[in-house]
Design goal:
108 residues; 49% helix
Length: 108
């Protein structure tokens, strides 16, 4: 145990070994870390509070009476490839896609 303490003391107090850091520099680093940690905690608290406020607001509609549907149109029917913009494909719409979707029957 005494040997370990002597090695730690030698590393902590070496003058010319390149490991010595002034205490003022360490204090500045610790203060910066504390400020950053405080900033992150305050930000997390504000985001959590904002989320709680948004989730607690009324929806202004009744979700139990909400209806939805999905209508899928064949891609080749209305889209012509026009190339790429970087990695995103660029397409041209041919015809009027809305005209192909005819309302049939009554909606209840």
């Amino acid at each position: 145990m005494k040997r370990l303490e002597a090695e730690v003391w030698a590393l902590d107090n070496c003058a010319g070994c390149g490991l010595a850091v002034p205490h003022a520099t360490i204090n500045v680093i610790v203060a910066g870390e504390m400020a950053l940690a405080t900033l992150l905690l305050v930000t997390a608290g504000l985001v959590g509070h904002s989320l709680a406020v948004v989730l607690g607001r009324p929806l202004n509609f009744e979700p139990d009476r909400l209806g939805s549907f999905r209508y899928v149109v064949a891609r080749d029917e209305f889209i012509e490839p026009a190339g790429f913009d970087g990695v995103q494909p660029v397409v041209n719409l041919n015809g009027v896609p809305a005209a192909a979707v005819a309302r049939q029957g009554r909606v209840r």
